[in-house]
Amino acid sequence: MLKIGGHVSTSGGILNAIGEANKIGANTIQIFGASPVQWKAPLPDKKIADEFSALSKKFEINPVFLHAPYLINLASRKGNMAVISKELLKKHLEIANSIGAYGVIFHIGSRGQRPQKEAEELIVKELKEIFSVVKNGKLIVENSAGAGNLVGSSIEEVGSIVKKVGEKRLGFCLDTAHAFESGILADFSKKGVSDFAKKIHDFIGKEKLWVIHLNDSKTPAGSNKDRHENIGQGKIGEDNFHNFLAEKFFCSKPLILEVPGYDDNGPDKKNVEIVKKMCQN
Ligand SMILES: [Zn+2]
């Protein structure tokens, strides 16, 4: 069964996300568990959390993903940035657990001038610690667009971290726009797409791709500039998405849109319908 949805608003409270999901015809969603630009992440009220779980079951919205705040940087050298990032990830993991979400998708952050090997060791150590403290819930690393020494812009790099952490609760989220912008997915021919799938199998693991952020890009391949566009309307384009979704390894995963939408209100029914159609053909 095709799993398609998008990042939906929780404005007015997380329960509103369910209505938003229904409005766009989503059977999987992503939400912010707390403010994406704050270091505070209070657990939702138990009553609200239970109601959210019940409503997502009732409307068959499953899986639900949390997106961690953009502030997180596990590789930073600045002050105690890496430590507070780790603490914030723990809190979001607890929020995910409380509302019955599948897991927390996060960006590793920028390593700045820190050498790659040193940054990787630190990231691995921090992730291991999070898993040793919070005993439930999954973390999902997202690939980055590659600008400013962002960690995780290549499949090899994500794979190396995932393998070194060696934790079954750590998986991978492929963002198609970031992959295109970082230049690691530019060939959308049938062979190009299946080679890319194979690369994920080889370096990260076949069973580790848990979700896809399906986004077109406003900027060209290799630009390192992260600007999402509606599916088929950007530099990746309709034909390339057709080819991408023709690959079973990809179209069988939950597809989460993070697109501007045709009314600039974020992922909408029109984008969802476009993807559904592409997956039928
Ligand atoms: Zn994304």
Beta strands, count: 10
The H-level CATH homologous superfamily, spelled out, is Divalent-metal-dependent TIM barrel enzymes
Look at the helices and sheets and give the structural class: alpha/beta
Strand-residue fraction?
Answer: 5-15%
Mean pLDDT score: 95
Succession of helices and strands: EHEHEHEHEHEHHEEEHHEH
CATH topology call: TIM Barrel
| Largest beta sheet: strand ordering | 1-2-3-4-5-6-7-10
| Assembly state | single chain
Uncertain runs: none
Biggest sheet character = 8 strands, parallel, barrel
Q: Helix count, per DSSP?
A: 10
CATH class: Alpha Beta
Provide the helix percentage. 40-55%
Task: Tell me what the structure shows.
The chain has 10 helices and 10 strands. Strands 1-2-3-4-5-6-7-10 form an 8-stranded parallel beta barrel, surrounded by 5 helices. The protein has a two-stranded antiparallel sheet with strand order 8-9. With 281 residues, the chain is of the alpha/beta class. Helix 3 packs across helix 4 and helix 4 packs across helix 5. The protein has one domain: TIM Barrel (Alpha-Beta Barrel), CATH 3.20.20. The mean pLDDT is 95. It binds zinc ion.
Indicate the topology.
Layout lengths: L3 E4 L8 H9 L3 E5 L13 H13 L5 E4 L13 H19 L3 E4 L9 H18 L4 E5 L12 H11 L4 E6 H7 L7 H14 L5 E6 L1 E2 L10 E2 L8 H9 L1 H4 L3 E3 L11 H12 L1
Parallel strand pairs: 1-2, 1-10, 2-3, 3-4, 4-5, 5-6, 6-7, 7-10
Antiparallel strand pairs: 8-9
Zinc ion binds next to loops.
